[in-house]
Each structure stands twice: as C-alpha cells, then as structure tokens.
C-alpha cells in the first residue's frame, strides 16, 4: 500500500498489526480493513479493551502470570500444593496446564528460554527469582515443563544445574507418544524420546 492510497493513520494501523505473530504486511492490510469496516461493532470495542488491558493487567510479582490483581488469581487460589513449582517458558504454557486441570501446584514463568542466536541470556529470564523461591520456601519438587526444543532443553539443563543442592528434586515432563498417536506418524525425535521415557506396566 503506497502513501498515495492511504493516510498515515491507516498506514500506522497496518504497520502495528503486522507486528503481531503470524501476520505479515498483506494479512495486516486485510485485518485493518476488516476492523475499519466494523468500526462500531469491533474496532472501537477492541481499542477500548486494549486500552483497559494496558492499564490494568500486569505480571504477577510471584509467578509471572498476567492478571489484574497482585498476586494473580492462580497464586491466591486455595487448595494448591505449595511444595510443587512447575516452571514454564511463558504465560500461554501456564494457561495450557491450567486448562487441562492436571496440575495443582504453583507456577513460575521464565519469560522465555536461553538462546544464543537471539542473544537471550540468563539475566534476561526470570531465573533468579525462581532460585530465591526454592531457597526461601519448603519446595520438595520443581517440574521443568519447558518445550522440547533445543533452546528449551538447554534452559532446562541450565536451571537444573542451578537448583542442584537446593533441597528440591528436579523433574521434567515426559516426552514421547501423544495420546491417540500412531507410531508411523511420529517423527524420529519423538520416537527416541518415547523410548527413553519408557516405564513399566
């Protein structure tokens, strides 16, 4: 879209939308036009919701989740096991585990993973506060629920090394065959992880 075909406000809207994950310039133009055509039913309510979110939502000072209260609703919830901490890469992973309802302990969001290519170092992540939580509390187990990527596993090993000797056992999620999965549809890495994580029946 050229400068002649649209004003600066539209171009700025498109440029900002194009920064969202999975949206390039062409998709951003489509989204911008879709919003502009639905100004009263979508664009204005969306702008209001974004402004309110920016004003009221913040990171939980304990676990790193997003919420409008401090500490967040998950940290304030009763009936959770305070001796378990599940470490996740980012907030969507926490939400996924909560959606499944299988974990009833506490969480810790790192805010990313170590990455030499992207220049992400331990100082860029929420690692120091995790160590402090383990040292200060009666934590019996830290579960490293990081993605099964090279950077995720590198981060898991780094965190596990830091937690050694702190009094808590360190575990990680099993990787392998998903429920309902067929072996001939799985990649080699998943099959190898499934074999390494095998257990008695």
TrEMBL record:
It comes from Hyphomonas pacifica. One of its GO terms (biological process) is DNA recombination. It holds the Pfam family Toprim_4. This is Recombination protein RecR. The lineage of its organism: Bacteria, Pseudomonadati, Pseudomonadota, Alphaproteobacteria, Hyphomonadales. It comes from the Bacteria. A zinc finger (C4-type) spans 60-75. HAMAP family: RecR. SUPFAM superfamilies: Recombination protein RecR. Belongs to the RecR family. The keyword Hydrolase does not apply. Keywords: DNA damage, DNA recombination, DNA repair, Metal-binding, Zinc, Zinc-finger. May play a role in DNA repair. It seems to be involved in an RecBC-independent recombinational process of DNA repair. It may act with RecF and RecO. GO terms for molecular function: DNA binding; zinc ion binding.
């Amino acid at each position: 879209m050229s400068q002649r075909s649209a004003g600066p406000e539209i171009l700025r809207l498109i440029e900002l939308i194009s920064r969202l994950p999975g949206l390039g310039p062409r998709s951003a133009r489509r989204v911008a036009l879709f919003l502009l055509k639905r100004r009263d039913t979508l664009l204005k309510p969306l702008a209001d919701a974004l402004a309110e979110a920016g004003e009221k939502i913040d990171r939980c000072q304990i676990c790193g989740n997003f919420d409008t209260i401090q500490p967040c609703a998950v940290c304030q919830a009763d009936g959770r096991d305070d001796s378990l901490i599940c470490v996740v890469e980012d907030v969507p992973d926490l939400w996924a585990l909560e959606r499944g309802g299988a974990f009833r302990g506490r969480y810790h969001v790192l805010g990313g993973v170590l990455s030499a290519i992207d220049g992400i170092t331990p100082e860029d992540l929420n690692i120091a506060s995790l160590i402090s939580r383990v040292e200060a509390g009666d934590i019996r187990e830290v579960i490293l629920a990081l993605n099964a990527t090279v950077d995720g596993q590198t981060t898991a090993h780094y965190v596990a090394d830091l937690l050694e000797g702190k009094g808590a056992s360190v575990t990680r999620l099993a990787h392998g065959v998903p429920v309902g999965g067929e072996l001939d549809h799985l990649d080699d890495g998943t099959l190898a992880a499934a074999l390494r994580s095998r257990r008695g029946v």
